[in-house]
Amino acid sequence: MHPSLKKQILSIASFSENEIEKIDACFEEEKFTAKEFLSSMGKTSNKIFFIVEGLARVYYLKDGKEITTYLSCDEGFIASYSSFINQSSSFENIQCIEDCQVLAIRYEKMQSLYTEIPNWERVGRILAEQNYLCMADRVLKLQMIPAKEKYLTFLASAPAKIIQRTPLIYIASFLGITPESLSRIRQSIS
Prior knowledge:
By secondary structure, this protein is an alpha+beta fold. Helices cover 51% and strands 25% of the residues.
């Protein structure tokens, strides 16, 4: 098993070496290039991705405009969780911002591990809870916090790779502000 995936999984629950081997066998290594899609809107998302190396975003279209809802990089999970959990058509795209090396687990394998390894349910629950908390936090911040404070909070909490390598247009969209407003905020704090 890739060391960073093993570290993430073991930070959530305990597993025997035999269980780790079973879990490892359920993940497939995949590589994507910048701009390539891990998952597309309108299709059922049947994988959760663990980013070994790279940078990706989740976004949807509203009135022809891309709205970024999530950013993830090295040692992070990314998925269209609603589509994955419900096995329904996704309203989101997951796109690589830069080349990505990922480990992917299919829905069927995830379900199989829930049955075979009881502690694996904890991993699934924690991932779902983290996704929910991220979305709930984002919605509250979009509605209640001034733009400058949103950006400062983003700078304080996002991984350095996301801050440094994500195009500003995606960061602005993620924060729910215009690129022009983000540019003014960045000038005011530098």
